[in-house]
Fold this protein.
Amino acid sequence: MKILMLDTSGPACGVAISRDGQIVCEMQLTSGRTHSQRVMPMVEQALALCEMTVADIDLFGAVVGPGSFTGVRIGVSTVKALAHAAGKPCIGVDALEALAANAPYFDGVICPILDARAQQVYGAMFESGMPPKRLMDDEAEKLSLFLDRVEATGRDALFLGDGVAAMWDAITARLGDRAHFAPAQHVGLRAASACTLAQVYAAVGENIKDCMTLLPLYLRAPQAERERAAKLAAQQREDSHG
């Protein structure tokens, strides 16, 4: 089976290709340009380097979130279009689970966190494995509440994800020596990790979608929708007091 995996859910734009369970190509780029400008040229280059075409791919995958609303939409829309054109199935991979897959041998809890802004993180907890063993659902919550969950396990914790840099001091202040941090090559989401997860799930027929049913994973409404809801609520309050 040949799998093409895209990740545009965070700061990096990533593409990976696997063939019969082996990663044969991985590209990752973090730059000032938008993922919409980068992803298709990277796909085309990866396929060319592997001497493949879109028609050779058996399964098209995307990291579906949580993450950047715009970034997630770019990746999911691109994969839906590629799968539709090729007449092939799709698969969606959870961003936090893909991050946890970066650390398959940690003897403790694996804590991927993404910067959700507004003093919140997208977070989850896992134990090592392939796929990682989930200990909690993905949540969008304040870091302090997430660390309450981590502290309650009584175990060492490995943190990784794009939320680490901004939250490092708060995590170490709370957990001390029980807090561990992934090295630079593993701290970010890797398209190859997501591609490996897709291979595992495809082997047992899980998470397979078509181009119509592959959808983004949002843990909360986009900022524009939240602002609109807040304005409507404020207007309703004014009207009720008018």
Remarks:
- The helical segments are 35-49, 69-86, 95-100, 143-153, 164-175, 184-187, 191-203, 223-240.
